[in-house]
Design a protein that fits this description.
alpha/beta; disordered N terminus; Rossmann fold; about 775 residues; membrane; disordered C terminus; AB_hydrolase_fold; transmembrane; transmembrane helix; 8-stranded mixed β-sheet; Integral membrane protein
Length: about 775
């Protein structure tokens, strides 16, 4: 038998590792001391202590009243840099990436799970093509083809003079104008590739440590002795390191963007050569289009081929895909530019480029993929139904539909506004006063259904407002009975009741999202059919009907067009304001704190995942500290920090997890994550977390719109949940509280007296480890390993 390893004796130290929530904070605020010292980490994310506690392990007698506090600050991972506020423009990519993780729980349905992931990845690919096609529509069709080819439009734009047909210069031929304009969408694709590659290197490239745990046979952290083996997805070694998938998807999406530009440039020249005799043989265009189709099929195959590898830390790269696919697509793009720039003296730009067909195909393809995704999700849910799962497992398809809708609004808004700007006083596509025909008709039809969608939303929103007001009135007597004030204050009662009723609105969000997604799908189908059957914008398509119907159609189209344009401008304005204003930057950063918790599994151009850095940071710190000191550790997470804390505990090896307690407060781990992401935070995974961690307490308030109970009972012991905590602590003025106490809602849980009580109870349940117990435990582990 091998000799037992030397195990360090317990120092008797106790540590509380604090993890803040969304919006971020400073280590000075978290630790309540202006003097702090960075223990480990860098300027992006680090662990801090009070300066006087730096050497606390060497003097445990100085901390008998409570644990040593450490603060893990991770806000710079999301909302620190002002330029990251421009990530708002990548919102559709982030939303479709969330749809990947909203898959219902699946047991023994490997094929269905793979199909679900492949369909989401195809939807993500269609969004990249949609964004690139919108850039091509603006630069190639509206600017180079339509405006530069019409004297009434190019005459008002002096900077377009070298491309204008009336100038008769070398660049005035249609193909050469398209070749010059292709620089814009090509630069956009290159920028997306650069941002994806740079953010991966800056935030997600940190490899997590692999722990040598005798109790684990496949690298998955096991549970404590006597509990059933639970290997949740978030506990797998490769879950927080998706380098291989992101690199492969980045290559595929970059190639898809280049191919879209190549099709727009070279495809126009190929169609002209087929239409009549010219200096360029038509066979060259056929060969070019065949090469485009072949490369596009390769891109689709790469996207569908495989998903994430989480069972082990997969550090390999698909060199063939990464090295050859984007350069091949770029080479085709260069060939298309050269092909289009070939002299064709008789070629005249008339009408529009065939963007109508492209946008119709994208709309039809996205709608079909969403329906297929819904069918797969529903079959998974019926196999393993969980009552708390939102929309009966259709949350992922609903969110994917929203991503497609957001993409359509943003791209259509840009095209509509650029067309209006180029046409000056006229309205594109609306009669003789228009100099250009404008963007594809389907974009106008999609704009016209937006006012209808907003009108439909008025009904549920009004119902929610009325229901919340009635619920607040009903809560009044219960609140006064709870506090038993010596003197009733109707205003105070009404404020508390309103806070509780408003906090409950969070649970109504799934219904609103389901309604919006369903209406978007149906109205989008109507817009597709209307543009296909009529071939004209809604106002002209209704020509010949009653004047009221015609006026209503024109009003809907005009209002919708301005609304999507205003929405896009609002996105840009928010990004610009966030770049200059720190408070606005933090507010917008909260969106990414919630939306970018998950790794980039569907769209490589989505904003980076901060958890791929934060979770390994926390698990490494906990494992290193408990292994070195043999002390007790409470990881204390608020709001989104509680989700990071739970994910880090899942990643711990068994030896470290036995010395760790979990304290969560204001936690969305079940109320939001458990319902929206059931495969990862559903009842099964949360029950497994509860049984694998030493002890867990969760604090929540009825006035908190984000946090809520976990809903898991501890068998033979106290429940996990502690709540609802009183908020406010007292009803009116008292000798102990002479000033009115605020309604805290989601903030400042540590101000509640029960917080310190529950933290002390967790430390007491952990109990001190005596040196002889540590040595016996090491000998037992050695015996099990040799056996």
């Amino acid at each position: 038998m091998a000799p037992a390893p030397q195990v360090p004796q317990s120092s008797g130290a106790a540590l509380e590792l604090l993890v803040h929530g969304v919006g971020g904070t400073t280590p000075q605020e978290m630790l309540g001391d202006p003097r702090t010292t960075r223990i480990t980490g860098d300027t992006t994310a680090a662990v801090y202590r009070r300066t006087e506690d730096v050497a606390a392990e060497q003097h445990p007698e100085r901390h008998q009243e409570g644990p040593v506090a450490e603060a893990y600050c991770w806000s710079n991972l999301t909302s620190g840099n002002g330029s990251r506020a421009l990530w708002l423009l990548l919102l559709p990519f982030m939303v479709v990436n969330l749809a990947h993780w909203m898959r219902p729980t699946a047991r023994g349905r490997t094929a269905a799970v793979r199909l679900y992931g492949a369909v989401v990845r195809l939807l993500a690919l269609s969004l990249t093509v949609l964004l690139t096609a919108a850039a091509c529509e603006v630069a190639l069709d509206l600017l180079a083809w339509q405006c530069a080819g019409v004297a009434e439009c190019s005459g008002r734009r002096s900077w377009l003079g070298f491309l204008a047909t009336e100038q008769g210069g070398w660049w005035s031929q249609p193909g050469r104008r398209l070749a010059v304009a292709s620089v814009v969408p090509t630069a956009l694709v290159g920028l997306l590739w650069y941002l994806s590659n740079r953010t991966w290197s800056a935030y997600e490239s940190q490899r997590p440590l692999t722990w040598d745990d005798p109790g684990s046979d496949d690298g998955t952290p096991p549970v404590r002795s006597g509990a059933p083996v639970v290997r949740p997805a978030l506990g797998r070694p490769g879950f927080w390191y998706g380098r291989r998938l992101v690199a492969r998807l980045r290559a595929a999406h970059t190639a898809a963007g280049f191919l879209t530009v190549a099709a727009a440039v070279g495809g126009a020249a190929a169609r002209h050569d087929r239409a009549g005799s010219g200096p360029v043989p038509a066979v060259l265009g056929g060969l070019f289009e065949a090469a485009l189709v072949l490369c596009a099929l390769v891109v689709v195959a790469v996207v569908c081929r495989r998903g994430r590898s989480e069972r082990r830390l997969d550090n390999r790269l698909d060199r063939a895909v990464i090295s050859f696919l984007p350069p091949a697509a770029l080479l085709l793009l260069v060939a298309g530019v050269v092909f289009a720039a070939w002299s064709r003296p008789r070629w005249v730009s008339a009408g529009t480029l065939p963007g109508e067909t492209a946008f119709r195909a994208l709309t039809l393809g996205q709608g079909t993929l969403v329906v297929v995704l819904a069918a797969v999700a529903l079959s998974l849910y019926r196999r393993t139904p969980e009552p708390r799962t939102i929309l009966h497992g259709l949350g992922g398809p609903a969110v994917a539909m929203l991503a497609c809708g957001l993409g359509g609004v943003m791209t259509g808004g840009v095209a509509q506004r650029v067309a209006d700007w180029l046409d000056g006083p006229g309205t594109p596509g609306m009669g003789s006063g228009s100099a250009i025909q404008g963007p594809p008709v389907i974009l106008s039809w999609q704009a016209s259904v937006i006012p209808v969608l907003l009108l439909l939303l008025l009904v549920p929103v009004t119902w929610l407002v009325v229901r919340t007001a009635r619920q607040a009135r009903r809560l009044g007597p219960a609140i006064e009975a709870e506090y038993e004030p010596t003197r009733s204050d109707p205003v105070r009662t009404r404020r508390i009741a309103r806070a509780r009723a408003t906090a409950a609105l969070t649970d109504s969000a799934p219904r609103i999202i389901g309604l919006v997604s369903g209406a978007t799908l149906l109205l989008g189908a109507g817009a597709f059919a209307g543009s296909w059957l009529s071939g004209e914008v809604p106002g002209l398509a209704m020509d010949g009907t009653s004047p009221a119907v015609e006026s209503l159609a024109e009003a809907a189209q005009s209002t919708g067009s301005w609304m999507i344009g205003f929405g896009f401008i609002l996105f840009v304005t928010w990004g610009r304001r966030a770049y200059r204003d720190v408070s606005a930057r933090r507010t917008i950063g909260i969106l990414w704190d919630v939306g970018t918790f998950w790794p980039r599994a569907a769209h490589p151009f989505a904003p980076p995942c901060y958890a791929e850095r934060a979770v390994p940071d926390l698990s490494s710190r906990m494992s290193a500290w408990t292994g070195r000191t043999r002390g007790r550790l409470v990881i204390s997470g608020h709001s989104q920090g509680s989700v990071l804390a739970a994910a880090a505990v899942w990643q711990l090896p068994d030896a470290a997890r036995r010395r760790v307690a979990l304290l969560t407060y204001g936690s969305p781990i079940e109320r939001l994550y458990g319902r929206w992401f059931p495969a990862y935070f559903g009842p099964g995974p949360l029950d497994g977390l509860h049984r694998s961690v030493h002890c867990w307490r969760n604090l929540w308030r009825a006035t908190d719109p984000i946090g809520g109970p976990v809903g898991i009972d501890e068998r033979g012991g106290p429940e996990i949940d502690r709540g609802p905590l009183k908020d406010p602590l007292v009803y009116g003025r008292t000798p102990e509280h002479p000033l009115p106490e605020p309604i805290l809602g989601h903030s400042d849980y540590q101000a509640d007296p029960d917080f310190a009580v529950q933290r002390a109870a967790l430390l007491e349940r952990l109990g001190p480890v005596l040196p002889q117990q540590a040595g016996a435990e090491a000998q037992g582990s050695s015996g099990r390993s040799s056996g």
